[in-house]
Amino acid sequence: MMAQAVAGVALHKPFTGESVNARGIPRLEPVRKAGRVQVRAVATRDSPGVITKAEKEVTRNRSMRVAEMAEEMKRVRAQMEEDEQLSSLMRGLRGQNLSDNQFATSDTKLRLVEVDATGADGGEQIPQVYDPELIANYWGSRPAAVATRIAQLLGVAGGFLSGIAMDIITKKVKENEVKRAIELREIVTSLGPAYIKLGQALSIRPDILSPSAMTELQKLCDKVPSFPNDIAMALIEEELGKPWNEIYSELSESPIAAASLGQVYKGRLRETGEVVAVKVQRPYVLETVTVDLFIIRKLGVALRKFPQIATDVVGLVDEWAARFFEELDYVNEGNNGTRFAEQMKVDLPQVVVAKTFHKYTSRRVLTTEWIEGEKLSQSTASDVGDLVNVGVICYLKQLLDTGFFHADPHPGNLIRTPDGKLAILDFGLMTQITDTQKYGMIEAISHLIHRDYEAIVEDFVKLDFIPEGVNLKPIMPVLAKVFDQALEGGGAKNINFQELAADLAQITFDYPFRIPPYFALIIRAIGVLEGIALVGNPEFAIVDEAYPYIAQRLLTDNSPRLRSALRYTIYGKSGVFDAERFIDVLEAFETFAAAAKTGGGDELKGNMASYGIIPSYQWPSPAMQNRRVQTRTALLFIFSEQGEFFREFILDEVVKGIDAISREQLARVMVGLGIDRLRPVLSPVPVPGLIRPFAIVPTVTPEDETVLNNVRRIVAFLSFGTPSAQSAAEGGQLEIFEVVRELVPVLPSVATQLVPEIANRLASRILARTLREIAVTL
Question: Where is the Protein kinase domain (predicted)?
Fold first, then answer.
């Protein structure tokens, strides 16, 4: 009923004689081209099947406006890359500064603390979950071991530390920051896992370090020399309770890769014959990490006496160390991989996660399925673009849906399998995104679309960029300037990046503005995916891939906060329905549905790849059954099971549309019959009481005209892109029946749900209008 009611109006001129304006030109079915989703536009308006030259021009202009943000981002990115420091920083965030070598250079020496911290001697044991107090108690009672480690550190980094001290004394910390970062990068690998990991964590924190310093730390390599095989085999036996050759029928003679925490062998399970990867933790890692944390925290406490050091070193270390300790527990890593795979298998079966063999996994030994493939960043396959799209969807699903976020997405962890799927490796470092953060990011995007800067600043508080209780009014003008420069058409060439950086630096100086740790990881993840995509597609813009997923969340998630975000996206601050925003959201959803089918999602029947698919209907006529109709994905979605929430959301607009269409059509019929000519005759006739004569012909109010124009825009968008519409564009008639035909399988159930509610709301609307008209005539 809803489809027929709104479809009929598309075949007529507006009753008022006004043409549909420029914003009503429809945009049509997404098509695949060179691994990307593009949109093909066909339009018709007053005359069925006729596209005017003006409409074609306006469609082109409108498409440019819709894509304006993405185009501006590309131009801004190009200008940023002209700056040497910013370009290097961007390469680092994309993981392009990392070495692809599986081992460190031969002259690298890793210095570890070789003491027994297991408690085997009857003494206390180092905690296996991060607890600063217990760690301090443990190492505080072992001053000799601590002194030995300090001597090691000073022997390697004495010059560096004395340079830092001199910078503090002479107040040249900022001036010598880059120089010290270079020195740090050159020595940190030999200091062990804690320093390597901490350096990598700092390399994505622009709120703590300058771009130059970040660039140097991004060159850190986690690859270190391997440790002897006999030690690794002994550790396997100690951890799993059997000699390695009773568990694995084969094991590579030497490790295939070695990192600061452990090294990896390729093997085969004796029990099942499956090929596996066996990761063995490096000896004395826990001991070395904890003593280093103990020393760094002591140093952090001492640095609090110097006001020139604004960063809270103790807080930063505690924040990072808790996650780092999780990486040391391979049981936790295996469980993370299993949980991640469960979360992806229904929606994104084209994302591959190595199966964990929990029977052969312990705190220091991890056995997982061996994944064949090549690094996505190095692949020359034609489907790399599609797999990047899948990767963007996957990371956005983690970020905005499951909240279980893979926090170590460097290029080596993203693999293209031989059968064209995307494999994700290494689940030691994960972070949890809260509901407040998930919904807050979507709300912030909705506010950014409408340039509601007051709301955006409030979003920064919710997202932990700004602490609660801070006076936000002085921040808004600067942020408004930043966003306006970035979003205005042609704004990229007008941006003064030095001035922009100064504005942002002033915010961080004047206010406790920081980048939350979880968001730094998000920046890195998106940066890595962007870096891979840009190799094969220089026109890649992350907003083109991200907004479609956000549109999908808005249309399918019935949580109160996302319902509110959807309403704001379409209605804005004014609360007035914006057909253009409505179409934008649906068009973005179509882009998402097309992307979700790539990388094998369609063949594997992924849940996200099924959006907009409705059950087939057995027609009595074979000819009708074999005639395939390509209805827009957006229209199919609205009538599908997944579209139930959205149907309810737009019900009021449907009622308004039916009411306006009915009044327009009734007015058209009465004018056609000449009844409107009776108005001068009947208008003088008195009516008992104080009520004056009613209008015989229904009045099409300005509100009705707005609603009718909105309906025409939406129907134009939803109805076109089909073979019948293309026929209409060539001069034929639009066959609404063809669209309805494909919707037949779901129309009965939808009608059962919606018709009574539409009837009730329509009756209420008509009654309210009648009462208003009566009140006016009194």
Answer: 250-583
The residue type found at 518 is: Y
Distance CA 252, CA 229 (A): 10
Phi-psi region of 572 (alpha: psi -120 to 50; beta: other; left: phi over 0): left
Per-residue model confidence (pLDDT) at position 698? 62
Count other Cβ atoms within 10 Å, centred on residue 368: 25
Does 387 score more than 70 pLDDT?
Answer: yes
Q: Token pair of 299, please?
A: 């140093």
Q: Which two tokens stand for residue 546?
A: 């991200």
- Contact status, residue 570 vs residue 577, Cβ threshold 8 Å: yes
User: Percent helix, strand, coil in the chain (nearest 5)?
Assistant: 60, 5, 35
- pLDDT the model gives residue 531: 77
Tell me how far apart the alpha carbons of residues 287 and 279 are, in angstroms, rounded to a whole number: 19
Our measurement of the distance from residue 381's CA atom to the centroid of its chain's CA atoms, rounded to an integer in Å, reads 24
408 is catalytic: yes
> CB–CB of 275/370 below 8 Å?
yes
CA angle 718, 346, 531 (to 5 degrees): 80
HEC letters along 236-271: HHHHHCCCHHHHEEEECCCCCEEECCEEEEEEEECC
**What is the structure's pLDDT at 107?**
54
Of these residues, 408, 459, 584, 659, which one is catalytic? Answer: 408
Question: In whole angstroms, how far apart are CA 115 and each of 142, 144, 290, 417?
Answer: 11, 11, 12, 42
- CA dist 435 to 19, 339, 440, 449, 646, Å? 45, 18, 8, 21, 21
Long-range CB contacts (within 8 A, 24+) of 264-272: 265/232, 266/370, 269/357, 269/360, 269/367, 270/246, 271/247
Cite the DSSP H helix spans in 415-496.
435-449, 453-462, 475-487, 491-494
Report the candidate in 162, 28, 80, 196 with the shortest Cα–Cα distance to residue 590: 28
- Are 512 and 193 in contact by the 8 Å Cβ rule? The answer is no
Which of 337 and 186 is assigned the larger pLDDT?
Answer: 337
pLDDT at 671 over 90: no
User: pLDDT value at position 487?
Assistant: 58
What whole-number distance in Å separates Cα of residue 66 and Cα of residue 443?
Answer: 19
Q: Is 777 exposed, middle or buried (0-12, 13-18, 19+ CB in 10 A)?
A: middle
Kindly give the residue spans of alpha helices, DSSP state H, lying in 612-746: 622-626, 633-639, 644-649, 651-672, 679-682, 702-719, 723-729, 736-743
DSSP 576: -
119: left (phi over 0), alpha (psi -120 to 50) or beta: left
pLDDT, one tens digit per residue, over 600-628 is 888 888 888 877 665 554 544 454 444 44
* Better pLDDT: 571 or 537: 571
